[in-house]
Amino acid sequence: MKHLIVCLICLSAIALSADAQTSKFGNVTWGPEITGPSKSTMSDMIASDDEGVYALRYKGALMGYPKMILEYYDPKMNLKKSTEINMTFKENKLDFEYALYSNGNLYLFGSYYNSKAKTNYLFYQQWNKKTHAPIGSMKKISETVSKSRYNRGSFEYDISPDKSKIIMLDLAAFLREDSEKFSVRALDENMIELWSKEVSLPYTDKLFRVQNFWVDNDGNFYMVGKHYFDKVAEKKKGEPNFNYVVVTYKNEGTVESKATISLGDYFITDLQVAPRTDGSVFCAGFYSEKGTRTIKGSYGMNINPETGAVSNKQLKEFEKEFLTLFMSEKKAEKGKELFEFDLDDIVMYEDGSSTLIAEQYYVKVVTTTTSNPQGGTSTRTTYYYYYNDIIAVHYDANNNIVWKSKVPKRQVTTNDGGYFSSYFAVTDKDKNIYFVFNDNPKNITIKEGDKLFNYNRKESVINLLRLDANGEWEKSILAKNKEFDMITRPKVAKLVNENEALIYSEWRKSYRLGKLSFKG
User: Fold this and answer.
1) Which of 76, 85, 302, 333 has a 20 to 30 A CA-CA distance from 39?
2) Torsion sign over Cα 322, 328, 329, 335
3) Of all residues in the chain, what percent are helix, strand and coil, respectively (each to 5)?
4) Quick check: 233 pLDDT over 90?
5) Cα–Cα distance between 21 and 366 in angstroms, integer?
6) DSSP of 177-232, one letter per residue?
7) How far apart are CA 402 and CA 416, in angstroms?
8) What is the mean pLDDT of residues 334-338?
9) CA dihedral in degrees (430, 436, 439, 444; nearest 10)?
10) What is the DSSP-derived secondary structure letter of residue 151?
11) Residues 410-434 as b or e (16 or more Cβ within 10 Å = b)
12) Quick one: 82 exposed, middle or buried, by C-beta within 10 A (0-12, 13-18, 19+)?
């Protein structure tokens, strides 16, 4: 699932250099061109501070497992240190899991599967940010029940918005008839455990799927799961065959609640949750009359985390005027629903209002067979990756929908996994949302309802689009990709502190890092 980085930021300007580019809404300053290892790419911008930038690089291999490389860049984005990650515990090689930057320190996590004990263990160790030397000993942080090397469970995490809390979720191996089991572990910014909880839900593994989870600034845990009634199927006799379940643990895990989310005969296409300042939990998403791949409208509701009670449920169907931004008036009149929109995130504001953000994403597979004069045949399969329009839905504090907006975008590519597609977004205190994505330069001057041109890799530009607090958008060119003969990868961009975001551009073996700020 695509992961959207959306956070409140303080907008500021940065000094422009010879490699700086500016637009109506922001500036980007590029570091030097760097030649990377062959068959490698940036996989994660870990963090940035006064001493530099820390990142992970993925390097594929023809034989064996891929390699992970830890990188350190100075404040001017010059590469200063590059180290292949090798982690061991008592001479046992660990599988790299992820890297975390917390309270100014860098931690690397690795796992080890013990086939005799049928257990998967998670370890961590602090590393020097600049020299890449391990600091102190390797420490075991958690473990989970496994069944085999290929079904050994997983370790996942989330970090609170203020970076003060970390949630570790240990998912046990998939066992069809067993109950859904996992462990929740809350840590502070120094990796000190605050509380932990062993959880067993009243659903079997085969009928329950964890969708997403979060931690707030107080260390409270929120999880969304999908519970199927009797088999893993979206429909049964044309009716929804599932409910969504929201699980919360508050007050250091001592207050537990489980709420079942249902919209009756409607299908819940997608659901996200976010904590409110009054202690309740806000749930929002899309719904449909036909299934889980189309959307008819959006909804919002509140959950009491102590009782699980649902209140202030609001549903609103998309008006025909809104639908005609995506389809013909005739189709809108017939009640055709929008299709394949993935709900990425909910942005919460201090006054209780919120904005839901979703992107149209799907893949088409086309197989063609041709014959030659000798009677032989050949088959070719082409994968088409669609990353198209963005929908933003704004709610007031009472869950009423105030406005909806279509952010026009067309990115259709083949056989590349949408490598340079999708977007990166941030929002400011005035409820402006800034979207960064690769675009066709012909689209910069379009107006609502105009024909969109497909993203063209050779002639593409970095579009910095501002969606204001009233749902009105305006585009501007942040940079022309061909000026550096590279293309920006929005999926790798990351908001690293209150004042700046990092973006990444590459082409073949060459790449650059950039620091991005916004004008407001």
Assistant:
1) 76
2) negative
3) 5, 55, 40
4) no
5) 40
6) TSEEEEEEEEEETTS-EEEEEEEEEEEEGGGEEEEEEEE-TT--EEEEEEEESSSS
7) 38
8) 92
9) 20
10) B
11) bbebeeeebebbbbbbbbbeebbbb
12) middle
- Which phi and psi angles does 175 have, rounded to 5°? -130, 110
d(CA 145, CA 172): 5
Record the tokens describing residue 335, joined without a space: 């009640």
- Tell me: the pLDDT tens digits for 408-465? 999 999 999 999 999 999 998 899 999 999 999 999 998 887 889 999 888 899 999 9
The pTM of the full predicted model, rounded to 2 decimals, is 0.90
Distance CA 205, CA 176 (A): 5
- Confirm if 406 and 326 have CB atoms less than 8 A apart: yes
Helix/strand/coil for 504: strand
* Nearest Cα to Cα of residue 518 among 20, 25, 1, 8: 25
Tell me how far CA of residue 356 lies from CA of 133, 338, 345, in angstroms: 42, 16, 6
Neighbours of 300 (CB within 10 A): 23
40-49: b or e for each residue (b if 16 or more CB lie within 10 Å)? bbbbebbbbe
- d(Cα 301, Cα 315) in Å, to the nearest integer? 9
Q: What is the pLDDT of residue 19?
A: 67
> DSSP class of residue 466?
E
Token pair of 500 as six digits = 């700046």
Place of tokens 């329009």: 389
77-97 tens-digit pLDDT: 999 999 999 999 988 999 999
- Per the listing, tokens 């063609």 go with 368
Q: How many CB atoms lie within 10 A of CB 438?
A: 24
List the single range of 4-8, 42-46, 68-72, 216-220 with lowest mean pLDDT: 4-8
Q: What's the first-to-final CA gap in the chain, in angstroms? A: 30
Place of tokens 């939990």: 281
Contacts of 151 (CB under 8 A, 6+ apart): 173, 174
In angstroms, the CA 156 to CA 467 distance is 32
CB of 504 closer than 8 Å to CB of 79:
no
What pLDDT is recorded for position 358?
A: 97
